[in-house]
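pinned: reference chain
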Amino acid sequence: MFFSFDGLDGVGKTTQMDLFIDWLKQRGHEVVGCYDPGCTPLGEEIRRMLLEHKVEIGCTSEMLLFMAARAQLVDSVIRPALERSAVVVSDRYVLANIVYQGYAGGLDVETVRRIGQTATRGLLPELVFVLDMTPRAAAQRMNRQPDRMEDRGDDYRARLRQGFLSEAAKNPEHILVVDAAREIDLVQADIRAAAARLLEQE
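pinned: its structure tokens
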């Protein structure tokens, strides 16, 4: 079973993902947590390039770098874990590129989607949790300086949020929007309830 978390920076993905992984382990599952891009030597190098302010990277190049990192992550980490029946939980995945470089960055959304299919060889999560709140609220929660991807202004973040919501409306069976402006335990309860329904079907 494969789950991923997505949403604006500052919505609490890391907190909710950590709680979710703890819950899965308590239920007896082997869990592999990962973050995208990253978790492989190639992925870490690409992550550093993408998030630092040192190099100007165009939107198409940015998207393709993400996809290269993801292809390596799938082959080296995610697919082997799924083949041994572990539960995989990823901080971001293909949806992030569809939204960041597609909806917000101006690339053709369907082209990004097709490249994502190629990079992952069709491997998508059974369920994506999109943690949702207003861009202003998410920005207020951040306790660090924004990285290169985040430091693009309010209009950009508004397009990101609309992209996530649009994709969820197109694919409600596989993308669950969770109101992340609530208390942490209430958000986690919704995540666990949705996951439990899927896990019971295995």
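why pinned: Residues 59-83 form the longest helix (25 residues). The mean pLDDT is 94.
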